[in-house]
Amino acid sequence: MKDIKKILLVSLIMISILGSGVSSASAATVDVASGLNNTQIQTIIDNANSGDTLQFLGSEYDDIALVINKTLNLVGANTGTVIKAITNSSNIPAAAKALGVSNTAAFYFLNNSNATVNASGDNCSISGFNITTNSNNQTTSASLIYATNVLGLNIVNNTLSSSAWGVYAYICPELKIINNTANNFTNTGLLAFGSAEAYIANNTVSNAANHGIDVRHGLGYNATVTGNTITNADEGIYLMHSAGHNVYNNTISNCTLSSITAYGAADCNIYNNTMTNSFVGVLLASGFENINITNNNFTLKSTSFPPTFPYYILIADSSLQSKATSGVFTDSAYQYSNVSLSSSFASNNITNGQSTTYTVKISNLGNGTAKNLTINNLLPAGNFTNYQIQAVSRGSFNATSGTWNVDNLNANSDAIIVFTVTAKKSGASVYAPSVNYTDNNGANYLVAKNNSLNINKDIKTSYTTAVNATKVNVNRSFLVTVTLKNMGLDTSNKFTVQDKLSSAFKVISTAQNTPFTYKNGTWTGTVGANKTVNLKMWVKVTKKGSYQLPVYINGKVAKNYTITGK
C-alpha cells in the first residue's frame, strides 16, 4: 500500500484571519412569529446579526425556502415546529441559483465568497424542527436542508421526512448531524458530500430508497459515523471515493443490498457495528484499500439453498457492470487525485501603502493525476491592492483574466504562485481562490477558505498654531492661525479645534478650508490625504490687561498664548 493513501486529503481550507464577516456587539434572540410567510421570515433573517438566535414560535410554516448566509442559530418550538419545504424548482431562491444550486429545500445554508459583500453561512445551527414537504410527488432534487461551502454547520434534534434527500451537505467541513430522526426518502437520508471531518452521530434513519447515510468524495475525508440506527435502505451506510473514516457502534437492519458499502474508499475503520437481516454485511467495491473490519455483530440473510451462507464481506468491482463483461479478473486499484488549495499572507495586517507577500499553493496528495487545473479568483474585487508576480512554480498566469493555468498536477506534487501585494485603499480585502480541474472522478470544483487582508488607514497628522501679535491696542484685532497637516494616504479622523476666549476677547470673523465648519467657537472637520488646512480667526481685544488665550485641539490645549491689551 502506498503511504500516500494514508491521507486522502490534507487541508481543504487554510485557517483564515477572523474578522472578515459581519459581527454584532452582542447576540440577540429574535422571535419569528406564528403565521409569517417565507418572504417575511427571510426579511427577519436578512436583518439579523451574526450570532443571533431565531426562535420560531409558530406550530407550522408552509412553502418555505430560506437562505441563511450569516452565522445564526435557528430554533424550533419545544413541540417541534413544522416546516414544509418548497418542491417546485421555480421557487428556488435567487441566491441559491446564483451558486448553481438546483435542489429545492426549506433551508439553504450558503457561503458566497464572490459576493460584493462577503456572505458567509459558517458555524450555523438548526434544531427543534419537523421538516417535511408540501407535496407527495417528490422530484429527484427535492431536499429539506441544503448546505454548500459552509464551515461548522450543526444539524441537531430535528425530524426530517418525505423528500428525495433529507440533508444534502456539499463541501461543508466540520459538519455535525446529531440526534435527528429521518424517514421516507426516495433517495438518501443524510448526505455529506466532500465534507471533511463530518460527525454524524445518534441519528435514526429509515425507509431510504438508496442510502441511509452517504459520505462521499475525496474532499470529504476523516468522517465519523457512530451510534446511528438505520433500517430499510438499499445500502445503510455508503462510503465512496474518500478516506480516513471511522464507522462504529451503528445498528443497521433490513437493507436490500448491504449494511455498509465502501466503494473506492481507503483507510477506513469499520468496527463494533450490529448488522441484521441485510443481504450483505460489508460490500467492498471499485479500488478500495486498507479497510479495517473488526468486532462487528452480523445476523444476516443466508442464501436459500444449501450450502446456505451469509455474505459477511463481499468484494465487487464496478468495472463489471456490463452483461457482456468477460475475461480474467483481478481487483484493480482505482487511481484518483487528492487536491487541496490554500492561500497565505506574510502579514495579514498592513497599512495603506505597504506591501506583503501573498502565496497560493495547490497540492495533489492522491495517487492519480489532476488535469486542466484553472485557479480563479486569485485576487479579489474591490480595487484594494496592486499586485506584481514574484514567482510561478508551474503553469502560467494570465494577467488579463486573472487566472492561473496548470496543465497537469501529478500524484504527490504541488505548485505555487507568489504575488507582491501593495495596499492602495484601506479596508478588509477578502481572498478566496478556487480551482476547476478533472481527474478519474470527472469534473471537480474546490474553493479555498476565505483569507482576509486587513488594510489599516495611513494617517500622518501634525498641527501648528500662531498669532500675529501678543500686544494689541484695545479695540484692535489680531489673527490666530491653526494649521493642520495630513501627509498620509487616507483622510484623517475628525479634528475638533476650539477657542475658549475670556471676556477680554471677541471673535470678529473666521475663515477655513472646506470641509471644516465653524460654529459656537468650534471648528470641526477632517483633513484629506496629503492635504493642509488653515483655520483663521480674527480676535478683537476689548480691555486692557494680560489675558490667556488657549487653543484646544481634540480636547487638549495645543498652545496657550498670553495676549496683552494696551
From TrEMBL:
Protein name: Parallel beta-helix repeat
All copies of domain DUF11, residue ranges: 340-444, 464-551
A Pfam short name: DUF11
Domain (Right handed beta helix) ranges: 167-299
Record SMART domains: PbH1 (SM00710)
Cited InterPro entries: Beta_helix, OmcB-like_DUF11, Para_beta_helix_rpt-2, PbH1, Pectin_lyas_fold, Pectin_lyase_fold/virulence
Superkingdom to which the source organism belongs: Archaea
